[in-house]
Amino acid sequence: MNMTDKQKDEVLKKFDAYLGSRASQNTLLHENNKRMEKHAIANKETKAFREAAKARYGIDPITDTEKFPVMKEGFSWGKFRQQLNEQLREADSESAFQTFLVAGLLQNIIGMYNTVAVSYKEWATVTPTNLKETPYAALQGLSFPREVGAQMPYPEVRAAGYDGKLVARKYGSIYSVEDELLEDDQTGQFKQQSGTMGEYLQLLTEVLVYAKLQSVSNMTYAGFNPPVSETKPSTEANWPWSQAFVGGGANRPSAYAALSQASIQTGIESLMIQKNLLGIQMQVNPKRLLISPIYRFDAAVLMNSAYYPSGAAAAGSTGGAFAINPIQGLLDVTISRLMPDNNGVIGGLSKAWFIVDDTKPWFQVVVRTPVSVMQEAPNSGAAFERDIYRFKCNTRMNADVIDPRFAWKGSDGSV
């Protein structure tokens, strides 16, 4: 069909009018959508809802379309509600009620390590500290006074002692256990295993104390390698056991001997004539015998027999059958399963033995952080992602000899 120019102009005018009306409608629709979007996002109640959702779940339900795909095709509010209810029910059971279960478990753990028996507290001095490095100065007294002549000046005296420091060292471990294992364990053994963490730290302190006391090389116990004494002063050739300290003192015999009445008497007598750095006799009062279980019954006989505990004496010698026991009740006895032998083995069969004056603070256990057991937060980390509960125990402490002249090493365990 052929159209005249006039007809063409009329058609074009109508088409332009149509486009104009459509553009006007689109503009109005766009502006209306912007007003609705602004109202939906900036509305006071909606804004509060968005902020609460972001704080609790980490997403904005209006703008985070990837994490909260409300506007995406195929989104189902019914399915979303079902998933949300399942997650909330799971969150209640895992993060709330299981926390009470674990809290009860922690109480059992704390009770276990608070009641564990350790023997070092019977003779060593436990000192709390707030320092990483605790200084000490083991003074042994002043020079002895002398006679002062008429109109003569008084003589100057000086103090003598050891000077050093103990560095707090950190010890600890982490134990992981599945939530299902705790729930399904009908015997309660795995709950008890968690409690051994703190118990082992208490025993580690016992190992460290007796290892520092023995101070022989290559000591080991269950993978733990305690060091020898770290307090050796530069003025002493041998530490902590020597036949010739500066000043003439000694705290071990020339030859070690098995535990017997004669060797105990030698140790007591030697400590009672102990000399300090200035060669002056010290006021050492032997009070305690330290042994391993291998000498338990020998020590009971030697310390408690009313009659002479050894064999008949030779003619002309003091003692013998039916004589009194001269060492009865002189020493208290401390028995430790963790006494190292002369090869550094800690197995309860060490023949090493010591006599000490437990009234003096000559051996220090410095505690920076006491033994503690804590649980990882159940709503984060492995507990949240994999239902694995993790317990951590730790302590910061150290132990060492401060002044060994208050102790006698009768044997290192070699005899």
Secondary structure layout:
Layout: H1 5-42, H2 44-57, H3 77-114, E1 125-128, E2 133-142, E3 159-167, E4 169-178, H4 179-184, H5 189-214, H6 261-272, E5 288-291, H7 296-304, E6 332-335, E7 353-356, E8 363-375, H8 381-386, E9 388-401, E10 407-411
Helix pairs in contact: 3-5
What does this structure look like?
By secondary structure, the chain is an alpha+beta fold. It contains eight helices and ten strands. It has a domain of 279 residues: phage-related protein like fold, CATH 3.90.1690. It is 36% helix and 19% strand. Strands 1-8-9-4 form a four-stranded mixed β-sheet. The protein has a four-stranded mixed β-sheet with strand order 6-5-7-10, with helices on one face. The longest helix is centred in the first third of the chain and has 38 residues.
| Total count of helical runs of at least 4 residues | 8
Please estimate the helix content.
25-40%
Integer average pLDDT: 79
The gross shape turns out to be: elongated
As laid out across the biggest beta sheet, the strand order is 1-8-9-4
**Second CATH tier, the architecture of the domain at 114-142 and 162-411:** Alpha-Beta Complex
